[in-house]
Amino acid sequence: MKPIFENDRALVLFSGGQDSTTCLAWALSRYAHVETIGFDYGQRHAIELTVRPDLLKKIRQFSPEWQARLGEDHMIDLSLISQLSQTAMTEDIAIEMQENGLPNTFVPGRNLMFMMVAATLAYRRGLNVLVGGMCETDFSGYPDCRDDTMKALQVTLNLGMATRLKLETPLMWINKAQTWELAEDLGGSVMVDLIRADTHTCYLGERGELHEWGHGCGTCPACELRARGYLQYKGSL
Predict the structure, then answer these.
(1) What are the boundaries of each domain within the chain?
(2) What's the rounded Cα separation, in Å, for the pair 192 and 188?
(3) Which site from 1, 69, 111, 219 is most exposed, i.e. has the minimal number of CB atoms within 10 Å?
(4) What mean pLDDT, rounded, does the chain reach?
């Protein structure tokens, strides 16, 4: 199967979670060459970084086409983020709403820095598409997940580096149930099972029991969103 955009080379922001794994499958179905980038920013759920290598190995084995298209993985140390901000994603503190109306799981500047670093790497590697799992449908109100933010960032990055980078966000306008559906469209039940059992989403870093929807504590906002989306996808809600 030929890629849709044979002349494009993509870099996927790949954390090891449900959304980024779906985005990686989406990119592999479209682009002739795909690389991945992950970030260690002192996240409380650093377990996501430990599942990445095995996930990538299994995705490489998914089909001969994907094996040929999936290139190098890059892991970047961005511990600077945890030094600059105190959030429930980087500190062992309770998850709660803040006075500004945003949950304290919001890490200020995280996605902006992720995209800037990814664009810098893409420049060096000759990649012209950045793919991220930002979503404005199920996004907890994070301002750096909005479509307007990504569009503005694309303009800024291209102006600042004299490039023609494209920022693609395939999940921007779909909810979690539709994200499960997209995974099935891309890779059938095998892809759904891979995401369910091998990815990590839980903010508290809990693996433990494998629930119907995947591993996790089941009570943090990320787990609740993932579980509800899975049940809706299966028609149980």
Answers:
(1) 5-176
(2) 7
(3) 1
(4) 91
What is d(CA 32, CA 10) in angstroms, rounded to the nearest whole number?
A: 8
Q: What is the dihedral of CA 122, 117, 134, 72, to 10 degrees?
A: 50
29 is in an annotated binding site: no
The reply to whether 15 sits in an annotated binding site is yes
Task: Determine whether the annotation assigns residue 223 to a binding site.
Answer: yes
* Tens-place pLDDT, residues 36-56: 999 998 787 678 889 999 999
Q: Give the tens place of pLDDT for each residue, 111-161.
A: 999 999 999 999 999 999 999 999 998 766 789 999 999 999 999 999 999
Amino acid at 189: S
Rounded CA gap, 12 and 134, in Å?
A: 12
The closest of 194, 180, 177, 173 to 63, measured between CA atoms, is 194
202 is in an annotated binding site: yes
Average pLDDT over residues 61-74: 96
CATH architecture for segment(s) 5-176:
3-Layer(aba) Sandwich (3.40)
- Is 133 assigned a ligand-binding role in the annotation? no
Q: Show the tokens assigned to 202.
A: 């839980």
**Is 144 marked as binding a ligand?**
no
Nearest to residue 172, comparing CAs of 131, 128, 230?
A: 131
14 is in an annotated binding site: yes
Tens digits of per-residue pLDDT, 189-199?
999 999 999 99
